[in-house]
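Quick log. Single chain, no ligands specified.
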Amino acid sequence: MPDVITVEKDPAGYAVLTLNRPDAMNALSRQLRAELAAAVRALEADPEVRVLILTGAGQRAFCAGLDLKELGAGGLSVADGVEVDDPVTSLSAFSGPIIGAINGVAITGGFELALACDVLLASPNARFADTHGRVGIMPGWGLSQKLSRAIGLSRAKELSLTGNFLPAEQAERWGLVNRVVPADELLPQARRLAEDMLGLVPEMLTAYKRLIDDGFALSFGEGLRLEAERGAAANRAVTAEAIEQRRALVQSRGRTQT
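-> predicted structure:
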């Protein structure tokens, strides 16, 4: 029996996590959820992995959400959808950036997995749908709050109160995904983006992500104060020599990047 999660660690410093139930549209069975959460925790503890890429096997589905076949057979309780030790909680606890490579449909729980990522790239096969209301289960992994903050209140209500699909191109226009790329370029571009992120000063990669996330949860004024406090504390440790060394690298990259 194939693994329901595959993990590929790249020497550059990132890992590709693949949901591997393509025949079931990568639906979140109890086993898949538990193994995904465990894999993310293990990678967080691995000093050689500082960026994650999350994707699904095949081109039909990134993730079709909770396994409704398992749920209907009584193998999964409704309460399991909001347990503390779930994959979304584990993804949220990963200190480095997470790139979602959305290769197909992301439905309900799969939509929530996508929203747990920091950056989303999508193939033209990607579509997003929140079908919580049609299944009769309230969200428990943050979708009701994250989606409105990502695309605006009225657009989020349109999606959640209809269960309609949002195509990849419209998701890009609405600001949900960073860009739509050809299906055969999805993982290569995600890998290049991971390598770009790994070019940052190592401690900045995690500290800057944390500053953005923590500040976003505050009011604008409080966020500015948080930046000032953390910036002052961190910048006192930066030497002039370190800045001079990094300046040359930044200038060189600026001349060569297209």
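Confidence is low (pLDDT under 50) at residues 78-82.
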